[in-house]
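Researcher: First entry.
Model:
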Amino acid sequence: MSLPAPLPDARAVVTGASQGIGMAMARDLARLGHNLLLVARRKEVLEKFAAELTDRYRVTVDVRPCDLADARQRAELITELEQIPVSIIINSAGIASFGPFKDQDWDYEEKQFSLNATAVFELTHAVLPGMLERQSGCILNVGSAAGNMPIPNNATYVFTKAGVNAFTEALHYELKGTGVTCTLLAPGPVREAAKPEEELSIVDKVVPGWLWTTYETCSRQTLEAMASNKRRVVPGPLGKTMDFVSQFAPTGVISPVAGWFYSKMA
């Protein structure tokens, strides 16, 4: 198989397109000739990015400022998606929290659940009928290697990502033979190729640089996996290690260790 061919009226939709994995994948899709619909909260960032892609790759780039954690804004976007040919969707938007669940800001936790899980669920449902009717389309949902195991001090995040992981892999099997593919991206830590010293987090400082995956590498490997209709892609050495450990190490051993590490990020 391969990615859907770029078409004048079709759009590749990328959420979380203002930074990180979403921005890297939007850039690569534009390079491949796909017209884009970029979704994120920050209008000025999206417009600047859209101008860059249009100028460099001569593609059409539409921007939709939208807080996907807000049900009303999400519904407006879904109405639009149901009316246009979506050839590819990259559900990349997400946030996380760290520390004991009982101590978290409840509004933020609800927002995290809506963004990480509900938005993926609803946007996938919105674009799927059109893809099935055309017998062509690619769905990429960004889960996480963290969704493979219970991690204390990261409970809401792993709750959402475990759901995205299982949901996406279930759809992968459901859609076999339809012409529509569904791939899970389950990365470990991903960051910029170069990061200023003053912006380094505790994770940046603890994890050796050679173990990290860059956004650009993550995007390239993910698009290759999508084109091959792979069920799951786990880029980078650290992500692969986390994936392996989560599948074979005893939960009673690995979860307390991971929980201690995540408590340091609170």
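Researcher: Second entry.
Model:
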Amino acid sequence: MVTEINSPLSSPVTPAEAWQRLRDGNERFVSGHSRHPNQDAPRRSSLVNHQDPFAVIFGCSDSRLAAEIIFDLGLGDVFVVRTAGQVTDDAVLGSLEYSVGVLGVPLIVVLGHDSCGAVTAAKHTVDTGSMPAGHVRTLVERITPSVLAAQRNGLTEVNDMVVEHTRQTAERLVESSRMISDAVASGSTAVIGLSYRLAEGRADLVSSIGDLGGGNPGAPGLAAG
């Protein structure tokens, strides 16, 4: 059942409520019933002097992974950070800490996707020993530990490596940032990993850190409403 939730500016939300909003929006997108909320002139005007997003989405820069579209959201709904292969650096950590410490978002989402070019490049390097040129090398170097971890677990497909990289990235965010780890420990913020399927448009939950409330929030396959 899809929960009716309007503007996040109306009241604070818990990590579980934020996750439910994303699930509902993704389900509308998958089913072809997107509402395109909060995309009109009044909404734009209401955000001139403030923002109050209910989640931060740290995802891959892939052009097919536009957060506001795949989760059926609009202006001011989510704070978005993107790098190729959702690779973390100091600027990413600073942006995420800003979203938690200043904007008070209750949910951090690490968003990976199948057929990821950056993960594919890292797998190619591990398989062949050939490193790419330029700054792409930095991306590959940061993704390689996830590729190696997947291989140690007997996983050889790129999409399995994407899932492993998404999980490891979520863990590293909490390990690398005292601000984020404290927010998770206090229950004010949770960190989840999602793996997006390009063909279906569905974002599957593959990991969770913190309290999402009820049942087993860390189990995969819970993206549907």
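Model: Note on the second entry: Residues 151 and 161 are 8 Å apart (CA to CA).
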